[in-house]
Sequence to fold (671 residues):
Amino acid sequence: MKMIRINGETREFSTGVALFQDFLGGLNEELKQSNQVIASVKVDGKELSAEEETLLSEIAIDQVGEIEILTASPLDLAYETLNTLDQYVELLMGSVAQAADYYKKKNLISGDTYLAKAIDGLDLFVQTIGGVKLAIRVGLNPKIALIEATLVSIVQDLLETKRQSNYVFLAELLEKDLAENLSEWKTIAFPIFRNYRIS
Amino acid sequence: MKKIIFLQLGRYAEILQSLPAIQAMAGPSVQLSLIVYEQFADVVTGFSGVDVLHTLPSDELKLEAEYDLLVNLTFTEPSTYLASKIKAKKHVGLTRSEDGSIRIDDSWSRYYFAQVIRKNFNILHKVDLNQRIAMADERTLQSRVNAGWPLRKVERSLVSGHEVGVYVTSGLNSPTWKAILDKVPAQILSSDCFKNPATLAPFDRIVTCDSDMAALASAYGKQVIYLALSFTRPEETGPYGPEHHVLLTHQIEPESLACAVGEVLQDKSVTVRVPHSKTVFKSCVDGSLRSELVPQNFEYDEVKHFFSQTYFLLAEFRNSGRTENLEIPKFGKRPGFSNLDFLLAAHDALGTVRRLAEYGRHYCLKMLGNSDDKIALKEWMGKLTKIEDMLADLRKNIPYVRPLIDQLMVNKDVRGDGIVEVLELTEGSYRELIQDVEIVLNLMEVSVNASKPKGLDAVQSRSELGHENDTH
Fold:
């Protein structure tokens, strides 16, 4: 038997469940019934990163130290993610402004580097927003749909202007259109997400 | 309140050519200041847009502690000293760095420095160029559309005359003026009209060879018959706006010129051998207008015309990010009169420029990868110098590639924080040159294909234009 703390309560688990990953899989299945997911896993008081979790996955649960689990509802996680996204958008805007500045100065090497960072950042941003929308179950909201459509159009224009080596327009798209759109996510879209549960 | 200050230390013409840019930026939440020389300041009176006028020389310029934007539309060295002393969040046009060297941050001013100052191909009038420089920070599609010409607030009484005025200056010799005045019933204008434009009231048409008068008269809505002297560029500095006439005076007999002026004033076609052009407003893709000269009784050299149009397209693309629409220039319209050998020479030279730019970029990248190896850096720096020397040779011998090389030299004359940034900026300049050559070659291919008689196959590749191997 192995003693494991879940949300502060100690529970006994049979060590028949040999591997750490099997234990987490089984727990996830159980939590599904109560519409919960695993939010964090601590071993010997230290929260595991995704890599550390993978490293432990093939180890027998008996050999893993003291395990502590925190669970949350997907909805809570979504709202927590929104707070993180607020700061993430700020960082993204920094990369976007840097890229525009470099393109205007004709420093194309640094411009390309920051543009690549911004595009990667946007990719992650869009994926995360998709997850948040799914969790909060936002249907068709005209304001959010408009901001989304604008972002898609800006990204298409960015790729086209990059293909044409049109650095003036590229810089303008980054520092004006994209910056404005990202700020709209913060000022218009995120408040709609946050108030969705209340309304 | 946004505070903007313009610096224009030119003469009457330059001040008048700057006013549309100033007026286009005016607004209720903007305070616009202008610095000019006192002796030319009168010309600003009567026009809207300028809230505070400062004149030089002055013991004490009462300037604001800081401006949001300083636009220096004077491309002279002395103006850079004053520009660098005025505190502004953003500088447009020529200024000086902290180390005292001349600095240009915006792309249209770099274009002006590389093309207009060096008398390369440029079909943009200075009024249009000034607006592009001043509004570099504005939205591409919204810029310039508000500019008006003739200038706003022109008094009604000043545009109702019916007389012809002739402004006699020393640009043309006395026999020429005498021949014109014998042919044309006209009154002679005095230079007082710069101080008191009301004296222009009785006239609706002005004959002049002076760019100051051409600018003043066209700004007040008069039709100008501009007698362009051999060293001037009427497309840049002649009368602005539609329906003006330009007669080229180089190696023209006084009688012929007088006859041409007479025909123009009678609204007839010019039949004597005097090159005659008219100004027209052409629409840009953003809805704004630009003034252009259109030949009436002669045709431009086809190759020169092709490159003028091509470099205009390239300038709009590189500096405004816009793709303008133009009629495709064609070759061989007049068999026996086409300088196609020059086209082939230019094509070969473009290939060489591209290859040299590729080498330039290659060495920049090598240096960036080994920025700590001082011996290697010195060797590669030597290679870059050789590339520049070869480009300078090409510039001297093939005029059609001169704008590209001059633009490179202005673009790469940059200062950065450390060698890495300087190398990155130089790499960017070479990379842009490679792309610019590609654009020019593509446009050349389009023009050659459009010039082929129907039924002939289009040019399959650029090699058909010249040699298979376009390197030297």
Notes: Chain B has 14 helices and 13 strands.
